[in-house]
């Protein structure tokens, strides 16, 4: 540590070059932080999907419904502890750009199936008692300024009313969650309310999908095969899979964002590695005679090598650490840059740690060759060059 003043003075010898190199590293790690936050947002549902939950869908497509009558048969399957169901509603608030996830669900079983959704007990009772009641995530309530007791109209994109009017819901409660990354942008209302209206349009007694909770996650494949076998050769066959696989498959329909973000981040870090390595190489070439003088004064090869590596690491740490710090601040304070299109937007601690490791690796890699050259430099040869 006593050589830090010398290292810093060497870095400031060419201030403009050092500043631009620092800015390059800084921008690269700001980009890294943002990309990791986006990757986390698109992979969030996969990480949080329950290992003990299975999804039962129509074998043809997720947009095709299943009979409501399947629910009782699913409850009778050995190993099944809980069954719930939902319909995707696809409504928007006021303008089409204000779309968010909203579903018709069986209220009691839905909350038992997803205990990470926390609703105050009085609000839960109010929701269960109100046929037109709904609960909404804290993020969406904040986005639109909704509060408990508000009456909210949603214009449907799938289940349109014959008269063209909007569906109206009473905000009975606002759910939150202590689990980091939980989707708090959704709105849930009573499936029975939707079903009553659909009877007039001959679409009644159908659900979009079933969610079942099983006692032993190890039995998931066997139970899935048993369920699909029950409905084989029926007019509406099923496809049963784990919730994790279902969410992962849904994410793949959007695109391979995880791979794309990692490739972009890797390309940025690689380019900065080349820039930093070039900066260090130029710095060492300019100070060849000074290194020879240091060796003449008794600095060994190992100490000279360590000083050059330290110089490279200081350059990487100053630029990389400030870049990571700014990206974390922007993600945490600024929130979702897409206007709440993403259900959750944050930078996980694991990615911050990974970024810190990459900063150190960048410093070591950028300075490795110049440090090796400085360490093996012969005094006579160095002085002869000048």
Report on the architecture of this protein.
This protein is an alpha+beta fold. It folds into 2 domains: 4-45 and 256-384, no CATH class; 53-215, no CATH class. It has helices spanning 4-11, 15-48, 70-75, 107-113, 121-129, 138-144, 191-198, 220-230, 243-254, 257-286, 288-296, 301-334, 349-375, 379-384; strands at residues 53-58, 66-67, 80-88, 91-92, 102-105, 133-137, 151-156, 167-175, 187-190, 206-207, 209-214, 238-242. The strands form 2 sheets. The protein has a 10-stranded mixed sheet. The chain has a two-stranded antiparallel sheet with strand order 2-10. Helix 1 crosses helix 12 (301-334). The chain is elongated. The protein starts with a helix and ends with a helix. The model has no long low-confidence stretch (mean pLDDT 80).
């Amino acid at each position: 540590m006593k050589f830090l003043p010398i290292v810093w003075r060497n870095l400031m010898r060419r201030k403009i070059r050092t500043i631009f190199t620092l800015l390059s590293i800084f921008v690269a790690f700001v980009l890294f932080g943002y990309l990791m936050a986006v990757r986390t947002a698109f992979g969030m549902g996969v990480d949080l999907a329950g290992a003990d939950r299975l999804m039962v869908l129509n074998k043809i497509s997720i947009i095709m419904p299943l009979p409501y009558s399947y629910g009782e048969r699913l409850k009778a399957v050995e190993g099944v502890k809980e069954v719930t169901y939902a319909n995707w509603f696809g409504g928007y608030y006021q303008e089409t750009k204000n779309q968010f996830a909203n579903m018709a669900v069986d209220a009691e079983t839905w909350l038992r199936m997803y205990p990470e959704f926390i609703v105050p007990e009085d609000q839960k009772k109010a929701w269960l008692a109100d046929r037109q009641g709904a609960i909404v995530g804290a993020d969406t309530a904040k986005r639109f300024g909704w509060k408990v007791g508000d009456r909210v109209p949603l214009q449907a994109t799938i289940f349109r009313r014959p008269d063209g009017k909007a569906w109206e819901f009473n905000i009975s409660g606002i759910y939150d969650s202590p689990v980091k990354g939980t989707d708090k942008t959704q709105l849930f209302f009573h499936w029975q309310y939707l079903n009553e209206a659909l009877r007039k349009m001959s679409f009644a007694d159908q659900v979009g999908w079933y969610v079942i909770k099983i006692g032993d996650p190890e039995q998931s494949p066997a139970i899935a095969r048993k369920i699909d076998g029950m409905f084989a050769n029926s007019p509406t066959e099923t496809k049963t899979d784990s919730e994790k696989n279902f969410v992962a498959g849904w994410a793949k329909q959007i695109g391979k964002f995880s791979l794309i973000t990692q490739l972009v981040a890797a390309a940025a870090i690689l380019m900065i590695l080349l820039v930093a390595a070039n900066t260090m190489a130029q710095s060492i070439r300019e100070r060849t005679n000074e290194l020879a003088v240091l060796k003449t004064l008794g600095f060994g090869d190992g100490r000279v090598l360590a000083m050059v590596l330290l110089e490279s690491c200081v350059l990487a740490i100053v630029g990389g650490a400030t870049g990571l710090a700014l990206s974390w601040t922007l993600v945490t304070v600024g929130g979702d840059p897409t206007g709440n299109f993403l259900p959750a937007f944050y930078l996980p601690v694991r990615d911050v740690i990974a970024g810190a490791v990459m900063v150190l690796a960048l410093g070591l890699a950028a300075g490795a060759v110049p440090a090796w050259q400085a360490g093996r430099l012969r005094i006579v040869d160095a002085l002869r060059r000048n």
